[in-house]
């Protein structure tokens, strides 16, 4: 039975690009997301190359995630990889004026959704053993503070520490864990964050030569195909055009 890769959030961006990259290499795929039509279309396209199971599920819905994992057909049960990719940022307003519902959504998706898929699939990854791996989508926002990042960055700090902690609990199982921490990448991520504002999306990437989802997919493929005795603990990448800002100073203090 071929090895299977489980990808959360495969209807766009990194998840979709990873599905394409791993399908090219012949891995069986379980792809998930909420947008059924997109997921179905991707599954149909990739099924010319490999076995693909589309699962329409919201990672925030614990019961639905439990049912989805419990119902995995035997054909897709030999799990070698999990890409915890589903996630989002909502808004860039400063903390005092942003929407508390957006904070809930980011925590529920980026933290709790990732917890659910990890916990529910761990036993299958452990059963695969040596060579299996989890790639969690963290972010530069998980350790570099910037204005408007508040809860989004904090959820990614969770992803980083959770990933590192998991490694300790998985010692001896052969299962690897990586926190992948990209900087600016061009994807629907910014359309979601800016509530569909196309002009703001365009301005974000204009002239910056951002990382593309296919670049991330290539990186994930490299991580999960390292020799079985190597664990990439964390990997941060940025476009060459992006660096850090200096400290901000309040000059109204007299
Ligand atoms: P996209 O918006 O293109 O893709 C996000 C994916 O997550 C979609 O497939 C979406 O599917 C899925 N998703 C969102 N919410 C849920 C949910 N509740 N249940 C199931 N699936 C969900 O963004 P990216 O590909 O750029 O981002 C992927 C990950 O990478 C995210 O975790 C993001 O935080 C992280 N990241 C992104 C960076 C960037 O600059 N783009 C940089 C660093 C990290 P659907 O809507 O169909 O459910
Ligand atoms: C996404 C990258 O810089 O927009 O995680 O926070 S950033």
TrEMBL record:
PROSITE patterns xrefs: ADH_SHORT (PS00061)
Pfam families xref list: adh_short (PF00106)
InterPro entries: KR_dom, NAD(P)-bd_dom_sf, Sc_DH/Rdtase_CS, SDR_fam
Keyword Transcription regulation: no
GO molecular function: oxidoreductase activity, acting on the CH-OH group of donors, NAD or NADP as acceptor
Alphabetized UniProt keyword annotations: Oxidoreductase
Residues in Ketoreductase domain copies: 3-183
Family note: Belongs to the short-chain dehydrogenases/reductases (SDR) family.
Protein name: SDR family oxidoreductase
């Amino acid at each position: 039975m071929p090895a299977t890769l489980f990808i959360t959030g495969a209807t766009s961006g990194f998840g979709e690009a990873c599905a394409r990259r791993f399908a090219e290499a012949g891995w069986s795929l379980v792809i998930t997301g909420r947008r059924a039509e997109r997921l179905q279309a991707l599954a149909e396209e990739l099924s010319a190359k490999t076995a693909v199971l589309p699962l329409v599920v919201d990672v925030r819905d614990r019961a639905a995630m439990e049912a989805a994992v419990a119902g995995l057909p035997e054909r897709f049960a030999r799990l070698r990889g999990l890409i915890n990719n589903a996630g989002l940022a909502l808004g860039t307003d400063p903390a005092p004026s942003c929407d508390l519902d957006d904070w809930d959504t980011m925590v529920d998706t980026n933290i709790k959704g990732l917890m659910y898929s990890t916990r529910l699939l761990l036993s299958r990854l452990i059963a695969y053993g040596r060579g299996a791996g989890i790639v969690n989508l963290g972010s530069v926002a998980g350790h570099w503070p910037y204005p408007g990042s508040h809860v989004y960055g904090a959820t990614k700090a969770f992803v980083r520490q959770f990933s590192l902690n998991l490694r300790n609990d998985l010692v001896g199982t052969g299962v690897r864990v990586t926190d992948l921490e990209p900087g600016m990448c061009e994807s629907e991520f910014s359309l979601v964050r800016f509530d569909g504002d196309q002009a703001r999306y365009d301005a974000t990437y204009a002239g910056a030569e951002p990382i593309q989802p296919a670049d991330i997919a290539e990186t994930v493929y490299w991580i999960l195909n390292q020799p079985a005795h190597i664990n990439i603990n964390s990997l941060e990448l940025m476009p060459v055009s992006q660096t850090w800002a200096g400290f901000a100073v309040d000059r109204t203090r007299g």
